[in-house]
Amino acid sequence: MSEVMTIGEILVEVMAKNVGQTFEKTGEFIGPFPSGAPAIFIDQVAKTGSSCAIVSKVGNDGFGQMNINRLKQDGVNVQYIESIKDRTTGIAFVTYKDNRDRDFIFTMKDSAVACISQDDVREEMFEGCKFLHIMGCSAFDEKMILIFRKAISIAKTKNIKISFDPNIRKEIMNDRKIKDFIFFTLENCDVFLPGEEELKWITGIEDEEKAAHSVLNQNVRCVVVKRGNRGCRVYEQHSYFDVDPYPVNEIDPTGAGDCFAGTFISLLNQGKSILEAVKYANASGAYAVLKKGPMEGTAKLEELEEFIKAKDKEAKPTYC
Ligand code: ATP
Ligand code: MG
Question: Is the CB of 146 under 6 A from ligand 1?
Answer without folding.
Answer: no
